[in-house]
Amino acid sequence: MAMMDRWSLVVLGLAVLLVQFPGVARCEVFILSHGGELVGELLNPQQSPRQSYQIKTAEGVVVTLAANQVKQVLRPKPEELEYQSIRSEYPDTAEGQWNLAEWCKEKKLTAYRRAHLERVIELDPDHEAAHKALGHVKIDGKWTTQREQLDSQGLRFYRGRVRTQQEIDILEEKQRTNAAEKEWAQKIDRLVIRLGSDQGEEARNALLAIRDPLAVKGLVAALKRSPSPAVRIILAQSLAGIGTHEAVMALAFSAIEDPVEEVRLSCLELLKKKKDPAVVEYFVGRLSVKKSNNVQINRAGVALKMMEAHSAIGPLIDSLITVHKIRNPNYNPNQMSNTFSTGPGGGGGIGMGMGSGPKYFVQSVRNPDVLDALVALTGQAALGYDIPAWRAWLAAQKSPPATDLRRDK
After folding, report:
1. pTM value?
2. Is the pLDDT of residue 80 over 50?
3. CA dist list (Å): 181 to 48, 126, 184
4. Is-cis flag, bond preceding 259, omega within 30?
5. Exposed, middle or buried by CB within 10 Å (0-12, 13-18, 19+), for 180?
């Protein structure tokens, strides 16, 4: 039995007890270890440590129980006991039940108050104050509950606010999805641990057999977290087997960001089979100095070469030589340096200034893997890092062939 239901029965039992036996001064409910409850007055409340419970029941019988025979003792609040003792003083009329409801409000006995407000309405269906206290509203001359009002508008009060059924369905679906993703993440973590045991082959096969898109989040987390390149390759293969957009883009991310070349190349081999335009678009984006450093730009070049991405020739040309803002390793803001100044009259002077050289300097960097990708895609090895020559060559490929307009003689 749920605790709330049990407590409701306890209060009901106490109410009956106090009505039938008004002489009982204190009442507790003793939840017995073997099941069941006993209602009565504890005669030895000061005993410590507790060895036994001496209980006087409503009939006046004294029962002694060993401490281990009682699982829990429930004691109603003083206000609840007071309520049971005074409730019979209020008549079962609309006015009497309203006054009792107001007494319950003062004592903060919310559940009791609601019960008496509902009784008021049973006795007087048009009792405005009771309806308002219950949160009812009057529409077209008829009192209705908030639930009924919301139902008539296709709305429900759900998770602290009013929502449409569509919103509720989306929230509940999201909750089910989150629960399933969490379950998959835990299962994947267990399988990854087993890869290093005598059950490694079985765990590997289980990972490679995963096809549920809800497992992608757990696989991606494990792929980023695992220190073993061999394990990361297995996880990448599992993502490729699922093949959703999220899974494929996770492989593209690892093809650039993973520190181990073997893992990056494995991801690229898996991506090459997918022929997904979104992957090429992602690698083209990683050619930008705003999104990548020099190392990552070269990795993007390797990736586009493996993807045989002829559509990326233009961006590759633009990334042959990239300009990077690099921090000056010799910069010391606390070091004094000499400065030369020219005065208004043409005279000069030597002064002292703070800092040694600029904090940052700009550096142009050639990207050999980008060039390698261009040569592989175009066959134009002779153009080297000559960007204007590459652009001229590309423009020529896009121009229509010249047509001889002369008439045949």
Report:
1. 0.58
2. yes
3. 51, 52, 5
4. no
5. middle
